[in-house]
Each structure stands twice: as structure tokens, then as C-alpha cells.
Amino acid sequence: MTCGGPSATMPATAETQEIADKVTHQLEEKENQKFSVYKAISFKTQVVAGRNLFIKVDVGDDKYVHLRVFEPLPHENKPLTLSSYQTNKEKHDELTYF
User: Fold this and answer.
1) What proportions of the chain, in percent to the nearest 5, are helix, strand and coil?
2) What CATH number has the domain bearing residue 40?
3) Number of neighbours of residue 76 by Cβ within 10 angstroms
């Protein structure tokens, strides 16, 4: 990992799924659709003034979305934010900074 760069890709954990779940409604609102499947597969983290999480999510039918979720520092007492996302991803697509 380079200083300020994203970590290596890691398998999703229960915490990763929980974070992805907390921004589901933001993604569904932006995409104007509901996802019947929404399973975090893998993730990377990046320390900033808080933390960015890049999460690969299986949304069914061999389709994936990549999420960039910003987690503010704990003392700021602010919610998670879906900063950006990419649709039309495939299982083999690497999580990269976007």
C-alpha cells in the first residue's frame, strides 16, 4: 500500500456488508431501481480525513457495482456517504480508485 493510496483488495467481511447496506438506499435512489441481490464481495480502504471504502457488490444476474463510501471520523458524528459508484461491472473487474 502506498501512503494515501488504497489498500490491497480483501474479501468482504460482515462489517463491509453492513456498510454497503447502509448506503443501499442512496444507490437505489440514484439508479432509480431496487436490487433483489446486494452482496458485498470484496473491498479496499483508503485513509483520508476519515476513510474511503471501495466495495464490489454483487447485484445479481452476473452484474456488479463498485461503491466508494466515505466514512467520516468518529468524532464528527456524521453518516456514511455514497461518494461515487460505477455500474455495469463484472466479477473480474478490479476495484480501482474512482
Assistant:
1) 20, 40, 40
2) 3.10.450.10
3) 10
- For residue 46, being part of any structural domain is answered with yes
Our count of domains for the chain comes to: 1
Q: Each residue of 53-91: pLDDT tens digit?
A: 999 999 999 999 999 999 999 899 999 999 999 999 999
Domain limits at 37?
10-89
How many angstroms separate the CA atoms of 44 and 96, rounded?
9
Sheet with 10-11, side-by-side order of all strands: 10-11, 39-48, 50-58, 64-71, 81-89
Q: Which residues contact 83 (CB under 8 A, 6 or more apart)?
A: 52, 68, 69, 70
* Amino acid at the residue 23: V
